[in-house]
Amino acid sequence: MSEVSSAVNRVRRATIERTTGETSIVLSLTIDGSGYADVQTGIGFLDHMLTLWARHGLFDLTVRAQGDLQVDEHHTAEDVCICLGRAIDQALAERAGIVRTAHSFVPMDEALALVAVDLGGRPYCVVQADFATPRVGQLGTDLIAHLFESIAFNGRLNLHAQVLYGRNDHHKIEALFKACGRALDAATRIDPRLGGTVPSTKGVI
């Protein structure tokens, strides 16, 4: 069996540990999971978003995070998403055999969101979403774009996210995270027609 074929058949899983003067995080991700999530960040709304991200993406995700929440939620939320991006990158390794690009539209009551991703190794992120309130639960809405940026740049992926319309900020953000999970689920799937090759004309990602 070739090295590339072996990579396609391996368990796509990663554990990331990150400790700084502001946070301490252990995050484990399995790409080919069942949607199981056990997320404890100390930020209830972020826990909710990552749990439904895993559920709709059929990823298995475990997060234990401790951070300087006495300051605010910024460092903890940011570092968790940095770890999530790094886990995606590490679990996919050289990304042999994957579909690579995908998108998902997800409605949440009156809100509709679109997320499109390309796992081609070129990090970029565009988020188009307007929010009416400064916070949802313990999470500032001004952080939402930054959290997707943290995932994209550390996961070496291109991510475009847009709220097409909606009124309720909870619904808008939930639709974004669900759409992100479903788009990544589709993009990370193995396409047997590729025969274990890297989906790029360059031969590498």
Brief synopsis:
By secondary structure, this protein is an alpha+beta fold. Helix content is 35%, strand content 29%.
List key phrases describing it.
globular; 4-stranded mixed β-sheet; 29% strand; 35% helix; Ribosomal Protein S5, domain 2; disordered N terminus; 205 residues; alpha+beta; 5 helices; 10 strands
How would you portray this structure in words?
The chain is of the alpha+beta class. It has one domain: Imidazole glycerol phosphate dehydratase, domain 1 (Ribosomal Protein S5, domain 2), CATH 3.30.230.40. It contains five helices and ten strands. The strands form three sheets. The chain has a four-stranded mixed beta sheet, covered by helices on one side. Strands 5-6-10-7 form a four-stranded mixed beta sheet. A two-stranded antiparallel sheet has the order 8-9. A hairpin with a 2-residue loop joins strand 8 (135-136) and strand 9 (139-140). Helix 2 runs parallel beside helix 5 (169-188). It is globular. The chain starts with a helix and ends in a 17-residue tail after the last helix. The model is unreliable at 1-7 (pLDDT under 50).
